[in-house]
Amino acid sequence: MTNIAVVGTGYVGLVTGVALSEIGHKVTCIDIDQAKVERMRRGESPIYEPGLDELMTKNIQAGRLFFTANHAEGFTDKDVVYIAVGTPEKEDGTADLRFINQVAKDIATNVKQDVVVVTKSTVPVGTNDHILSVIKEHLVHNVDVQMVSNPEFLREGSAIDDAFHGDRIVIGADAGYAGDMIEDVNEAFGIPVYRTDVRSAEMIKYASNAFLATKISFVNEIANICEKTGANIEDVASGMGMDGRIGHQFLRAGIGYGGSCFPKDTKALAQIAANHDHSFELLEAVIRVNNEQHRSLTNKAKEAFGSLKGRRIALLGLAFKPNTDDMRESPAIAISQELLLAGAEVVAYDPIATENAKRVMPEGVTYVSTAEEALRGADAAFIVTDWSEIKSLELRAYEQYLKEPYVFDGRNCYSLEDVASTSLNYYSVGRKAVV
Ligand code: UGA
């Protein structure tokens, strides 16, 4: 059992803290937001993540999981401090390290015993060295501090499962005992550990996200060519994926990636390269292709209708992917902007993300509480997020409620054979239109 503090209770911090408590460590999660701390103490997760509430409650009751807004209290007697605060994107695409720097100073002023500091947040190569130098510069007590880079690979919506069944745990440490210690801390997860130096660990995180984003943009471009040549992207992706070197995952064509990670991390890596006088052209193209892919449904609708002025469009799904209420960089935002700009009316439905959507979607979107309500009287449906509720919506519902029988499916939720037996005009991604 190790005494651990986790600073920051966003997705990464909270899931990390809860998972570490579940394998037997005594964990205190620290957040500056007192109201949020109160909620978490009651076992209420501030984010929608399947399975998280239950696991929080279980470990709070077991006396292994604590929450505080008081740094001095949070750092007392801790052998390991995890940094999991956000690294938002600055105007120029670089990572904003304001919160990281603040935590480094808080650690320096509060720790009274030797400590290993572990960075979970995604940070540019060299940041862990920087954090260590900030801590050492502000250190109040004469203690030893060592750094470990331990990037996080969890996916929103399946974060709990990923925490216990991830493909690997990357531990980046330079000389010293810290790497061994963090390997011990993680042992009970039973996940393969990959040991490397600090800078390589930092790069593994960016390179992994950039590579996955590249797969998505690549398959989306193949889908666009499939549409022009009459091939079917699902068959193409299945055939490609059977090659073990390529693999089936992340070959789902759609309306482009979103979320808090891929858009931010791809831009940050391109910027890191640029800062080192290297133009990462491949990655720049991946980003451009993705931005363009967000427009694909609207482009198809414009082509089908001529003009979208006065057309009422039902958006089904708003979150950047299913099983999350996260709206950050969701394609729904760009799609709504374009539709409104083209003079269309937008009626939106999401099973979970509506409240978050209201904060980031453009003014002028109407929100309703069922898919049927969104469809009723609309000229077309745009399927934006493949929630299982939306995927299981019967094709009959579109025929019944839509004013015009147009469906633009950004997630290929329906089989072309099923659609062929309806009266719908159906446009999907990388497959022949059914009209
Ligand atoms: C992603 C990575 O998958 C995690 O490994 C990583 O830890 C995380 O970023 C992070 O850096 O914190 P996440 O953003 O939660 O996780 O979501 P993904 O499931 O990877 O999906 C990202 C986006 O790609 C979504 O918009 C999704 O719709 C899209 N996507 C994914 C596709 O369009 N096609 C695919 O085949 C797969």
From TrEMBL:
EC class: oxidoreductase
UDP-glucose/GDP-mannose dehydrogenase C-terminal domain ranges (all copies): 314-416
SMART domains: UDPG_MGDP_dh_C (SM00984)
Superkingdom of the organism of origin: Bacteria
Binding positions (NAD(+)): D31, K36, T87, T122, E156, K264, R328
Record-listed substrate binding positions: F153, L154, R155, E156, K205, F250, L251, R252, A253, G254, G258, K321
Single Gene Ontology BP annotation: polysaccharide biosynthetic process
Active site (record annotation): C261 (nucleophile)
Pathway stated in the Swiss-Prot or TrEMBL entry: Nucleotide-sugar biosynthesis; UDP-alpha-D-glucuronate biosynthesis; UDP-alpha-D-glucuronate from UDP-alpha-D-glucose: step 1/1
GO molecular function: NAD binding; UDP-glucose 6-dehydrogenase activity
Assigned keywords, A-Z: NAD, Oxidoreductase
EC numbers for this chain: 1.1.1.22
Catalysed reactions, semicolon-separated: UDP-alpha-D-glucose + 2 NAD(+) + H2O = UDP-alpha-D-glucuronate + 2 NADH + 3 H(+)
NCBIfam families: NDP-sugDHase
Family: Belongs to the UDP-glucose/GDP-mannose dehydrogenase family.
Protein's name in the database: UDP-glucose 6-dehydrogenase
Source species taxonomy: Bacteria, Bacillati, Bacillota, Bacilli, Bacillales
